[in-house]
């Protein structure tokens, strides 16, 4: 979202707001002067300077007005109320042939605005996610509540440190997110590896819009018949349930099943986990083949999840306590 009209103090001139949102300057002025949607400050040269929150509000109002809401009924609402109204208005919006978008919570207003900006949405034939909740930072997130039921968490931070890792894990436990992606600028390698071992997807900025879109797709199950389309919706692939140590212990348990199903299934899960990690690493390193690796990661993750369910059925049949094996 770099732009010569994006000032260093976090304020935006009206031209920059128009470029980010795709809303004409004349419309923004009407929303401000006639409906009181924004209260920008004025520079010494009497130019309007909009805050990040104003950009976010403009993007949300745009969604609502395009779905049939009158500007006069939404202009006075704050960001949280606007997002809640968007969630409630989903049945009014055009049906998507690929299904409902995946709900997502975002930590970082700048990231949320980017994901909802004109340039980012133009890169996708269809919208495969819907932001339901936005927190300005991790402190705000820990004090907040969810207005929707997001399955995915996306976090933008400048620096990764052990305390940041711990706070993100606490958010995941509290709200039961199925997948979490973290974007950062600076971090010790030890922290990055620790976060990956926790099941988080971690990427260093800067990322192009295409790379960011592929990253989002990599945590979704992609229907094979629509693998070349960006808008493919589906369920979120959950994080792996069992560590390599647990799978190794299960594989070594003697059972009454003659065909050694527990060992084979545990080994398959371990192999799928390895390929899932490998595909994610390729996604991180090779931007040219990012779409293929996002697809491969989603397929391997979906297969791994199915075999985890199969392992649970085998464990129930054989009386294997997977919780005990985990400890």
* Low-confidence regions: 1-5, 91-98, 224-233
User: Roughly how much helix do the residues carry, as a percent range?
Assistant: 40-55%
Oligomer: single chain
SSE succession: EHHEEHHHEHHEHEHEHEHHHHH
Q: Which strand order do you get reading across the main beta sheet?
A: 5-4-6-7-8
How large is the radius of gyration? Answer: 22 Å
The span between the termini is: 46 Å
What is the average per-residue confidence, as pLDDT, rounded to a whole number? 80
Biggest beta sheet attributes: 5 strands, parallel
**Strand percentage:** 5-15%
Q: Would you count the extended β strands for me?
A: 8
- DSSP helix count? 15
Class derived from helix and strand content: alpha/beta
* Cα shape: elongated
Short description:
The protein is an alpha/beta fold. Helix content is 50%, strand content 11%.
Q: How would you sum up this structure, described in words?
A:
It is a single chain. The protein is of the alpha/beta class and 327 residues long. The protein has a domain at 240-327. Helices cover 50% and strands 11% of the residues. The protein is built from 15 helices and eight strands. It has helices spanning 14-21, 25-33, 52-66, 71-74, 79-88, 109-115, 118-122, 138-143, 162-175, 189-197, 209-217, 244-251, 261-285, 290-318, 322-326; strands spanning 12-13, 41-42, 48-50, 102-107, 129-135, 152-156, 179-184, 201-204. The protein has a five-stranded parallel β-sheet with strand order 5-4-6-7-8, with helices on both faces. It has a three-stranded antiparallel β-sheet with strand order 1-3-2. α10 links the parallel β7 and β8. The longest helix has 29 residues, at 290-318. The chain is elongated and about 75 Å long. The protein starts with 11 loop residues before the first strand and ends with a helix. The model is unreliable at 1-5, 91-98 and 224-233 (pLDDT under 50).
């Amino acid at each position: 979202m770099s732009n010569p009209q994006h000032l260093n103090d976090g304020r935006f001139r009206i031209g920059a707001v128009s470029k980010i949102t795709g809303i004409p300057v004349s419309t923004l002025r009407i929303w401000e002067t006639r409906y009181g949607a924004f209260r920008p400050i004025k520079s010494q040269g009497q130019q309007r300077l909009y805050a990040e929150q104003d950009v976010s509000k403009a993007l949300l109002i745009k969604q609502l007005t395009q779905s049939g809401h009158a500007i006069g009924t939404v202009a006075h609402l704050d960001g949280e109320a606007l997002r809640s109204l968007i969630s409630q208005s989903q049945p009014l919006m055009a049906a998507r042939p690929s299904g409902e978008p995946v709900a997502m919570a975002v930590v970082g207003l700048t990231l949320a605005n980017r994901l909802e900006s004109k340039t980012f949405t133009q890169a996708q034939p269809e919208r495969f996610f819907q932001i339901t909740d936005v927190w300005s930072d991790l402190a705000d997130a820990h004090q907040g509540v969810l207005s929707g039921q997001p399955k995915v968490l996306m976090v933008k931070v400048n620096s990764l440190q052990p305390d940041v890792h711990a706070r993100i894990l606490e958010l995941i436990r509290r709200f039961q997110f199925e997948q979490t992606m973290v974007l950062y600028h600076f971090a010790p390698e030890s922290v990055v590896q620790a976060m990956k071992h926790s099941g988080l997807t971690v990427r260093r900025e800067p990322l192009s819009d295409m790379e960011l879109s592929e990253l989002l797709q990599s945590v979704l199950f992609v229907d094979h018949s629509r693998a070349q389309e960006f808008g493919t919706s589906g369920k979120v692939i959950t994080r792996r349930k069992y560590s390599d140590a647990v799978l190794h212990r299960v594989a070594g348990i003697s059972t009454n099943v003659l065909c050694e199903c527990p060992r084979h299934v545990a080994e398959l899960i371990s192999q799928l986990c390895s390929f899932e990690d490998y595909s994610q690493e390729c996604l991180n390193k090779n931007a040219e083949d990012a779409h293929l690796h996002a697809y491969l990661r989603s397929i391997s993750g979906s297969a791994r999840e199915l075999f985890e369910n199969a392992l649970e059925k085998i464990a129930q049949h054989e009386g294997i306590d997977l919780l005990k094996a985990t400890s």
